[in-house]
Amino acid sequence: MSRFLGKAAAALAPYTPGEQPRDKSYIKLNTNESPYPPAPGVAQAVVGFDAEELRLYPDPEVTALRHAMAQCHGLAPEQVFVGGGSDEVLGYIFMAFFDKGDKVYFPDITYGFYQVYAQLCGLEAVRLPLREDYSLDPADYRGLDGHIVVANPNAPTGMALTVAQVEELLRANPGRLVVVDEAYVDFSDGRSAVPLIQRYDNLLVVQTYSKSRALAGMRIGSGLGQKPLVAALERIKYSFNPYNLDRLSIAVGIAAAEDDSYLCQTVERITATRERTACALEELGFQVLPSEANFLFARHPALGGFALYERLKAAGILVRQFSQRRIKDFVRISIGTPEEMEQLLTTLRRIL
């Protein structure tokens, strides 16, 4: 570690991304990537992209993509903020709205970046325990003295709040910002909080094109909320990285946003495979949490989470395992193609 590293940076416990192996070929069920390609228009946008344009800076207002995203959600373009993946959008949110020493509340089992950003920004992170069944109790979030961040559906559990329950959080905390991270919402059944945006000025919804739209390699995310919230995020962006989306990403994002039909087809295929796999895992004796995402969170009484991860990896299949005490016996399994999931099940039968 460098002797010039600042104290705050030295104290950080950085987020650990999922494995991106280079040593051999795996069935990759560990990072919640889509098993299917992006919309056909995306490939056309890439092939038709004029490399001559790369000598010019991109549009800092990301005007065309903001309009396309706004149309998808029935919002005004001024209600859409675009970032380099939802992680960047979340980073801007923590910088824009949370002052050093503020409290920020989120579940004890959730996306690891919330803790990292809280530490990076000098916030007091308050982790509220999920219920015994790993669901979130909205009653725990009533009248809090800090802002709130929830992933819905949650990661890594895959469980989700209803829109009515999200609205309960908003009503119970009118003077606090409620950030709803919807990275996996397209795989849920009508759980998006976007319809609440017009009624609640304390709601920010974060989404990504990495999962359902199969653009993890391009880094496109959004923050959706009332105009003053979006303007605040723009203020941070123009103080940090005005050209935060490159020209190719903008072109690809527009192509993806304009093909809702392909999005629906992809989501239907993945959710159907998810349900079949969940039933098969339960037949093998796994406890499988009810998932509204593109992954399953499961554990088996005969084998610990790390041991199962290692056995699967040795067989050429990657899943994700976490070290937290409450969930160390679970593995998170991304939904792949039907063929990949059948190979997973065949391997699990052999292991067990």
What's a quick, concise take on this entry?
By secondary structure, the chain is of the alpha/beta class.
Features:
Aspartate Aminotransferase, domain 2, 352 residues, seven-stranded mixed β-sheet, Aspartate Aminotransferase, domain 1, alpha/beta, four-stranded antiparallel β-sheet
Describe the structure.
The protein has helices spanning about 5-10, 40-45, 65-75, 85-95, 115-120, 165-170, 225-240, 245-255, 260-285, 305-315, 340-350; strands at about 25-30, 80-85, 105, 125-130, 145-150, 180, 205-210, 220-225, 285-290, 295-300, 315-320, 320, 330-335. It is α/β, with parallel strands linked by helices. The protein has 2 domains: about 5-35 and about 260-350, Alpha-Beta Complex (Aspartate Aminotransferase, domain 1), CATH 3.90.1150; about 40-260, 3-Layer(aba) Sandwich (Aspartate Aminotransferase, domain 2), CATH 3.40.640.10. The strands form 3 sheets. A 7-stranded mixed beta sheet has the order 2-8-7-6-5-3-4, sandwiched between helices. It has a 4-stranded antiparallel beta sheet with strand order 9-10-13-12, with helices on one face. A two-stranded parallel ribbon has the order 1-11. A hairpin with a 6-residue loop joins strand 9 and strand 10 (about 295-300). Helix 2 (about 40-45) runs antiparallel to helix 8 (about 245-255). It starts with 6 loop residues before the first helix and ends with a helix. The model has no long low-confidence stretch (mean pLDDT about 95).
